[in-house]
């Protein structure tokens, strides 16, 4: 009986969507069952499940936007990795969010025809693109802030030998750490230390 088959497919779709942990898995399930869309009962189930998956997609983007706006002044670097430096860590934090939003946009684009016909007009993805731009601007601004804060001529620092061979054949520091710090503050090359 066709009615029993429709009910069976409806149950399979519902179970599969509930079991899908990732958004892209849910979208793939919807795509697999889309050929059954001409049956009324299956069409209603697919429409309901599409709203659920699309809701997860837009909620993920909204969560990223909220977290970014709340913490952009003081990114939670120590919670993510204690080794991250301030500027590079803040830029990496923004890039991490940017990659996540771009992946969501890619999913939406890949399954656009199915999603727009059922639940969306695409305006949410325009907001996601704007969020991607804001995340990129934050990372670039963070880099520029770091770069303008570095004192001295960076090219001259590249020509300072950091290691030298000692008389006993071991490698040692050629420049003391305090001299490197002085170079960073003054922009002048420190005097070489002479062995006695």
How far apart lie the N and C ends? Answer: 99 Å
- Which value, in Å, is the CA radius of gyration? 28 Å
Total strands: the figure is 2
| Widest sheet: strand ordering | 1-2
Number of helices: 9
Structural class from helices and strands?
A: mainly alpha
Helical proportion, percent range: over 70%
Low-confidence stretches: none
How would you spell out the order of helices and strands? HHHHHHHHEEH
β content, as a range?
Answer: under 5%
Quaternary organisation of the protein chains: single chain
Give the biggest beta sheet: 2 strands, antiparallel
Q: Could you tell me the mean pLDDT?
A: 80
Q: Could you say which overall geometry the principal axes of the C-alpha atoms support?
A: elongated
Detailed description of the structure:
The protein has a two-stranded antiparallel ribbon with strand order 1-2. Helix 3 runs parallel beside helix 7 (123-149) and helix 5 (86-110) packs antiparallel against helix 7 (123-149). The chain has helices spanning 2-19, 23-33, 40-71, 77-80, 86-110, 112-118, 123-149, 154-158, 177-186, and strands at residues 163-165, 171-173. A hairpin with a 5-residue loop joins strand 1 and strand 2. It has 196 residues and is mainly alpha-helical. It starts with a helix and ends in a 10-residue tail after the last helix.
